[in-house]
What does this fold into?
Amino acid sequence: MTRDPFLDAALSEAKLGLDEGGIPIGSVLVHKGRILGSGHNLRVQQGDPLLHGEMSAFQNAGRQPAHVYRECVLYTTLSPCPMCSGTALLYKIPRIVIGENINFLGAEEWLSSEGVQLCVVQDPDCIELMARFIRERPALWNEDIGT
It folds into this structure.
C-alpha cells in the first residue's frame, strides 16, 4: 500500500511538534497537488491557544483568494476540533483527510452536515503517535482539548 505523501507531510509536522515539547498534531493545506501551508500545534511553544495544527497550516499558507480555498484539501493527523472545523467551513474547504479519529473525535458530524467530504484513514502511525502522547502527557492533552 502506497502512503499518501500529504498525510506523511502532516505526520512529519506532528512529530516536529512533539520534538519541540508540544502536542503532536500536524496539518497541511494542499491546492492542486501542491502544499500551500503546513503546520503543527504550537499552543505550548508559542503560548497561543489558537495555534492548533490546522490553524497553523492556514496561517502558513498565507492569504489566499476564496476560489483557491474552495479547491483545497486539508490534511490533518487527528480529527479536527470545532475551532479548526469552523475555519475549514468558513473558507469552504471541500475535503478533509483525517489521519485518525480513534484518540479524539472532533467535529466530523458538523463538517459532514455542511457537505464537507471526509476521508478518515485510521493511519497506524498517527494513532500510535497520539496514543503515546496522551499516555505520557495526559494533563497537557486535557488542556489542549479543554477538559
